[in-house]
Amino acid sequence: MNDEQLLRYSRHLLLEEIDVAGQEKLLQSHILVIGVGGLGSAAAPYLAAAGVGHITLIDHDCVELTNLQRQIMHTEDRVGISKVVSSKQFLQSLNSGIEIETIEAKATAALLDELLPSVDVVLDCTDNFSTRHLINASCVAHQTPLVSGSALRFDGQISVFDPKNSTSPCYACIFSPDESFEEVNCASMGIFSPLVGIIGAMQAAQALQVLIGFGEPLVGRMLLWNGRNTQIDEILIARNPDCQVCGKSS
After folding, report:
1. How far apart are CA 47 and CA 226, in angstroms?
2. DSSP letters spanning 174-220
3. How far apart are CA 183 and CA 165, in angstroms?
4. Extended beta strands in the chain, E state
5. Using CA atoms, how far apart are residues 34 and 148, in angstroms rounded to an integer?
6. Which domain holds residue 182?
7. Kind and range of the H or E element at 25?
8. pTM (2 decimals)?
9. Which SS3 state, helix, strand or coil, does residue 238 take?
């Protein structure tokens, strides 16, 4: 690190769990954020501010007025433009010393196969089961840690799925791809504005822990946040040996 970086990240360097070695890991890391709506708008700024050296953003949507209630990377003067373009402008104004790559497209298996070999951690900030299963399958195939978050109405959840850890479940261990789930979203159900900030910031924190290697990330655990009564619950989740995605027979 140069003198400017030593000063910029000095509050990280004071933490013995991070220190110079941990900060250098962040500067050399590549994180993929899929979805720059509510969750991505909270997670990506903390990743950029923390000094993750390379951040790739994927999203196919444009900024709408209804997004501004919770998607804090986007502003009134950017309504109608690509969300990834808007996000890059925000993140570069926050930290010009890192690389921000944008892909204005839907996440597909082919696109993830192209990207994941160079990615250290994936953040799933999407809002539908089919895309989450696609991302999970790609992360398992490429042995890439996945930080998964979701938020709807007043309820949020977050977990870390690490294919490099032999005891870690994957997303499909909990939510089988064969099961039929009713797709619901904030457009029809509503969402409490700060909820995406809480879960998205937690996703950033989990990603930094995985990258640096300190503490105990939420592997084998799922954190549930209830915004109605400010209650946090944790459930243990186990790997399913018969999982069609990460099981031994897969």
Report:
1. 25
2. HS-TTS------HHHH-B-HHHHHHHHHHHHHHHHHHHHT-S--SBT
3. 30
4. 30-34, 54-58, 99-103, 121-124, 146-152, 155-161, 221-226, 231-236
5. 10
6. 3-236
7. helix 19-27
8. 0.95
9. coil
235 within 8 A of 144, measured Cβ to Cβ: no
208 CB-side CA count, 13 A = 24
Tokens for 136? 């999970």
Any idea which residue has 């900024």 for tokens?
63
Provide the CATH number for the domain around residue 205: 3.40.50.720
**Within a domain: 21:** yes
- Using one digit for the tens of pLDDT, what is the confidence trace for 188-231? 789 999 999 999 999 999 999 999 999 999 999 999 999 999 99
Tens digit of pLDDT for each residue in 131-161? 999 999 999 999 999 999 999 999 999 999 9
In-domain check, residue 247: no
- Measured over all CA atoms, what is the biggest interatomic distance in the chain, rounded to whole angstroms? 54
Instruction: Identify whether the C-beta of residue 199 lies closer than 8 Å to the C-beta of residue 39.
Output: yes
Whole-angstrom Cα Rg for the chain: 17
Q: Please give the tally of structural domains in the chain.
A: 1
Task: Confirm if 147 and 206 have CB atoms less than 8 A apart.
Answer: yes
Instruction: Examine residue 48 and state whether it is found in any structural domain, yes or no.
Output: yes
Q: Output the six-digit token pair for 126.
A: 């999407």
Report d(CA 101, CA 53) in Å as an integer: 11
Identify whether 74 is part of a domain: yes
